[in-house]
């Protein structure tokens, strides 16, 4: 009987902890870059907002269009901006991190077919605290960056 009560209490505490963290991360203004047919890649952008008192790391991203998604950043190498794969994206406690063209982004690799304005793309983001976030991102055109 005591084991049953303790098990119930432990399970309830775990569920309450999970519920408290379930909405800690939100994605604001997510979108996927429009690309023409034949382009092997596209990218997803958004602002990740963390309402918890602990920092979290985005450690994985999946999408419905491609078999492979990588986290990328742009770095200056001898005056030339180069894209680099990174292991994770840090989201500060009670803060934001912005994924935007020319900076942090989710690179979607192995695209088959066009991704056109008005389409919607399902993405699943996984964080190091065990939280996952399912989002739907509309496809939008992005003007090329000028140098």
Automatic annotation (TrEMBL):
N-terminal signal peptide: 1-22
Xref: InterPro entries: LpqE-like, Lxx211020-like, PCuAC_sf
Gene3D superfamilies xref list: PCu(A)C copper chaperone
Keywords: Signal
Pfam families to which the protein is assigned, alphabetical: PCuAC
Plastid listed as a keyword: no
Protein's name according to its UniProt entry: Copper chaperone PCu(A)C
